[in-house]
Automatic annotation (TrEMBL):
<protein>
    <submittedName>
        <fullName>Uncharacterized protein</fullName>
    </submittedName>
</protein>
Amino acid sequence: MTLDSLRRLVLEPALSLLPDEMNSPEAQLMLLAIALQESDLDKRPLAEGGPHSYWQSGSPDEMVHFVLRCPVTRDLAVAVCDARQVPPVDELVRAALEHDDVLAAGFARLLLWTDPARLPAIDEVDAAHDLYMRTWRAPDPRPELWCEHHARALKSWLSAP
């Protein structure tokens, strides 16, 4: 999948399921950069019980559980699950992440929403990496690749119609 395809076919539909204030240039850029950082747009289970989406998250169990229970995201997560016809049950959502990219993008955006800090401006690369580290808690964060992935995501986002 290309970044442009990911934006058009996955991010836009996912963000349309959420309140308008959750869809911003900063949010789209973060989601594109994180997808590159986590999966390099090559997904599907890396290991038995392991990550299953472009926004793999260090522990999909933790991400799904947290987003479904956090007071800030709980109702929004249920609405995304309803729209994607997935019961808002941890095990069922985790299983659906493997084949429902829109659901995965929605949960990724909701995970970012749980952070109390504002989203970094599009040129705040270090702040974006800090947000990624706080929210994703990646076991292999590959910090040496963040600047490259952020730059690729920004270039793709800026060239979008």
